[in-house]
Design brief:
alpha/beta, 10 strands, disordered N terminus, 2 domains, single chain, D-Maltodextrin-Binding Protein, domain 2, about 290 residues, globular
């Protein structure tokens, strides 16, 4: 009986010891907490369609995002709409190409830190047989006069973009009010406008970069590009004024402006497109030389 009682006590002790081993983790086997990674900051960029359609921003923005733990939300729309987006405080920074509209928006206090970042040229593209004969035009307005006189098909963006604004200024210089079946306003971005012109075998005004990015997919060619006055196409980047909209990320917008105009950003612009299209789609401000912008 005594032996049985001793065995019961021994089993109880062993069970208690086992339970203690299970409940108490061995020294040195503590779990190391995973380091917390900061969530990326958000930057809202409103920009013209040409910077998106060419693919430039895919490369330019990715570098900035990686180096600064930032996520850029890019809204691609015509310059007029991009400026309006900024004026409503729905963006932190804008990248556009309509000098007169930009200066007006700066003057009304919507934007600050407007900075010249790059340029290219507008070109008039059309079918190779050139039914309006614009290849021999003396300037852009003369080319538009020939198109109107022939009533050759012309496709307008019609979207208040920088390209559309330039198109309207050329018609004005030509003393032509375009109308009729030959003139079609599509209200779309540059890529869609070029595609429509290609289908209809018509003319259109395009920025050179978007045309080069699409030239392998279309039959249209550059027929006129020799007009420094009307076809020069500068791009600027501006911060939305924090005095007007206190919730905008002004410091981050300034950092972005500094990046796209820095040697690093300018080098990306300088080389973008050379490997695929045989030439850069934009010229960085660093290389502007005597080609200046207001």
């Amino acid at each position: 009986m005594k032996n049985l009682f001793a065995k019961i006590i021994l089993v109880s002790i062993l069970i208690s010891l086992f339970a203690g081993c299970v409940q108490q983790a061995p020294p040195g086997n503590t779990t190391i907490p995973t380091p917390t990674v900061a969530a990326p900051q958000k930057l809202r960029l409103a920009t013209t369609t040409s910077t998106c359609d060419t693919g430039l921003l895919d490369v330019l923005n990715k570098k900035f995002e990686q180096e600064n733990n930032v996520e850029i939300s890019t809204l691609c729309e015509g310059t007029g709409k991009a400026i309006a987006t900024g004026e409503l405080g729905a963006a932190d920074v804008v990248m556009v190409h309509a000098v007169e509209a930009e200066l007006k928006a700066v003057a009304n206090g919507s934007f600050i830190n407007r900075t010249y970042m790059m340029y290219n040229y507008f070109v008039i593209i059309g079918p190779e047989n050139d039914p309006a004969g614009i290849k021999n035009a003396s300037n852009a307005s003369d080319a538009f006069k020939k198109i109107a006189a022939k009533q050759a098909s012309f496709i307008s963006r019609g979207d208040d973009s920088g390209t559309h604004k330039m198109e309207l200024s050329i018609w004005k210089a030509a003393n032509v009010t375009p109308s009729g079946a030959w003139y079609q306003s599509v209200g779309k971005g540059m890529g869609d406008t070029i595609s429509t012109a290609d289908i209809k075998e018509g003319y259109t005004l395009s920025d050179r970069g978007t045309y080069l990015a699409m030239k392998e997919k279309i039959k249209l060619g550059i027929l006129f590009e020799k007009d420094q006055k009307y076809l020069f196409n500068p791009y600027h980047v501006m911060a939305v004024n924090p005095a007007k909209f206190q919730d905008v990320k002004y410091d981050l917008a300034l950092k972005y402006i500094g990046y796209v105009t820095s040697p690093e950003g300018q080098e990306i612009i300088r080389n973008y497109g050379k490997d695929k299209y045989g030439e850069a789609l934009f010229v960085p401000e660093e290389d502007a030389g005597n080609v200046t912008s207001p």
